[in-house]
Design brief:
single chain, 263 residues, alpha+beta, four-stranded antiparallel sheet, globular
């Protein structure tokens, strides 16, 4: 359960999270509200529980999460949001999958098509690039001195994960979509167990999680990645940024091996 992280740069956007935190919270909040519309109890609504875990990994405050759940019974109750996925191409034959949550299909499709076209890409038909992606549970945990590779491997195996990739700063844990919730819950419970067993921090110190989630969601992971010509990278990155800036876009996945962002 080890190897090189082929998918690490799919999360390059996380480096921009602080600058766009409000926008990210708004998008996740909408996901929570839509998931809670049919059942606002995460104990019996596994999809809602998974999205709440995604929100917590993004450091979304609990007050925001609770407000989003309440929206499901209020202003969201009459809204007809649909989850739609678009497939297309960026420069140099790169593959892009755009997941949206929208109450206006024509607006969203037009906006996505316009951004792809402006940056040298195009909209494709359903299935044109998704064959190159796998739907997987994806959990990223911070690597610390306390949480060494052997320990993380042990926890992941016990939880039922399919694979673990150890990187310099994080562990990437992969599951099937069906086992994602169970693996996530196991690691959450393990963290609570470790924190309960640890010596209590000083009164004014905030206790740090022993297993710190950076990301937790079911994502589209590319099976093979491509490297773009150097002169095409900036155009591709601008396209991804423009797509992510759309209010209706929840997630953007691609198969480009982007250069590591500078610290």
């Amino acid at each position: 359960m080890s190897g090189h992280s082929k998918w690490h740069n799919i999360q390059a956007k996380k480096g921009k999270a602080d600058a766009a935190k409000g926008r990210i919270f708004t998008k996740i909040g909408r996901e929570i509200a839509v998931a809670a519309k049919s059942n606002p109890n995460p104990e019996t609504n596994s999809k809602l529980a998974d999205i709440i875990a995604k929100a917590k990994a993004a450091n979304m405050p609990n007050d925001n999460i609770q407000r989003s759940i309440k929206k499901a019974a209020g202003e969201m109750s009459g809204a007809d949001y649909k989850e739609l996925t678009y497939e297309g191409y960026g420069v140099a034959g790169s593959a892009v999958i755009i997941v949206t949550l929208t109450d206006n299909i024509n607006r969203t499709a037009g906006d996505v098509r316009a951004i792809l076209g402006k940056h040298g890409g195009s909209m494709g038909n359903t299935g044109c690039v998704s064959y190159n992606f796998e739907n997987k549970g994806y959990i990223v945990v911070e690597r610390t001195v306390e949480l060494d590779e052997d320990t993380m491997m042990e926890y992941a195996l016990e939880a039922g994960a399919d694979d673990v990739v150890a990187d310099d700063d994080v562990y990437e844990i992969f599951t099937s979509p069906e086992t994602f919730s169970d693996v996530r819950k196991y690691l959450e419970d393990k963290n609570a167990e470790l924190m309960a067993a640890a010596p209590k921090a000083r009164r004014n110190d905030e206790e740090e999680p022993k297993i710190r989630f950076i990301q937790a969601e079911v994502a589209m992971i590319p099976q093979n990645k491509i490297t773009l010509p150097e002169d095409k990278v900036a155009t591709f990155e601008k396209m991804i940024d423009a797509l992510e800036d759309l209010d209706d876009v929840q997630n953007v996945y691609h198969n480009v091996d982007l250069p590591d962002e500078e610290e």
